Amino acid sequence: MKATMLAGLTVAAMAVPTAAVQTVAAASPAPAGDAFYQPPSPLPAGAPGDVIRTEPSGFPTTAIKGPVTTTKVMYLSRDTHDRPIAVTGTVFVPDGPWRGPGPRPLVVDGPGTQGQGDQCAPSKLFASGGEYEAATIIPMLAEGYAVAVTDFEGLGTPGIHPYMNRLSQAHNVIDMGRAALRLGDPSIPKDAPVALWGYSQGGGAVASAVEQLPSYAPELHVVGGFVGAPPADLAATAKYIDGTALMGAIGYTTNGLVEDYPQIKPAVEAALNDKGRQFLEDVSTQCESETIAQFGFHHSSEFTSDGRSIGDHLTEEPIKSVVDAQRIGLIKPTVPVFVTNSTADDLVPPSNVEGLVHEWCALGADVTYREYALPHVAPVVDHSIPGGLALPEAGPWMADRFAGTPVPAGCH
């Protein structure tokens, strides 16, 4: 199993080819096209993770042996303030039989930064072959795992995507797992073991999810979580990312905070100049590549009324309190976690990831930590490389968790 995972990871890292993929009919009626992403009003009664609607989707790749059933899903979840919302995502199930022990495992993937426009939803990009998370999930599907990928709140569905808001993302990831188990697919039974996987934005989402599991989803059989380059401290990350290729993510973050905490909107607007207010409006409808092209290597001080950075304003009240509420590392994960980052990361402060590990370890969590000492290669690439480097080790680590192999207690 581990050798297969390693081989699959190598293939996925090189390319994501295209080919036809088998799908099934929707389990419940769904509107056509983008209407799929419009939730019913009012939302149906139900529990987090209940499926609202499904429809067949596509996943163009030849990197997997055998067909994969691909289903787009809308499911119930909860926002930052525990209010019911509808979120979409995609569930992939290999059509071949699971040949491992026990039921087929499920991996729930929290995707990395996509942007803030509805067109950036991973479920839309998977169908066209344009979603980079495919390089992560291909080897998992080749291994025989089912994989579920959330779009996160507000990507595809109405409203601003609350980028990096801790509880929203944790709920979305966990409820994506619940939804996949409730689809009724006999090949992923309700008692299937679950692992959570995420890098960058997804790493932050999974980091928050493993903290929330005991209180939010005690019934879910989660065996472990992979947490890659998590932005655990938004204020520090905003200052670190300023002037880099993905400086525009500061705009995503600010928009998301205003969306969930409207009481800070007057302070945000007062801190920005006209150019800054236009910056927030522009990035709210962009995908990551467009944001990089338009705002890459700018400094946020260009957009403020006093010439200080947006990161400086995030550390002042009334904004500071809502930024502090997004802090990850204060709650002990009750499942084993594998954390990774790089000394050359240009988008997430390496010291913050190391700090998260120390905080979890001090709380008594079981943490495997890998920090890669790498040279600087290129903007954004420096942030992305460790995700691929960790896969040949993190993949077998996850397989061991599915197999029930005990993880050494403590931190490594």
Query: Beta fraction of the residues?
Result: 15-25%
Sheet with most strands: strand arrangement: 1-2-3-5-4-6-7-8-9
H and E order = HEEEEHHEHEHEHHHHHHHEHEH
CATH topology of the largest domain: Rossmann fold
What's the tally of helices? 14
Write down the overall geometry: globular
Class by SSE composition: alpha/beta
- Our count of domains comes out at 2
Helix content: 25-40%
Number of strands: 9
Any idea what the CATH superfamily of the largest domain is called?
Answer: Alpha/Beta hydrolase fold, catalytic domain
Corresponding CATH architecture of the largest domain? 3-Layer(aba) Sandwich
Instruction: Give the averaged pLDDT, no decimals.
Output: 91
Q: Provide the gyration radius in Å.
A: 20 Å
Uncertain stretches of 5 or more adjacent residues: 1-30
Largest sheet: 9 strands, mixed
Topology:
Elements: H1 2-14, E1 51-56, E2 68-78, E3 84-94, E4 106-110, H2 122-128, H3 134-142, E5 146-150, H4 166-181, E6 194-199, H5 201-216, E7 222-228, H6 234-241, H7 249-260, H8 265-271, H9 274-283, H10 288-295, H11 310-314, H12 319-324, E8 337-342, H13 350-362, E9 367-372, H14 381-403
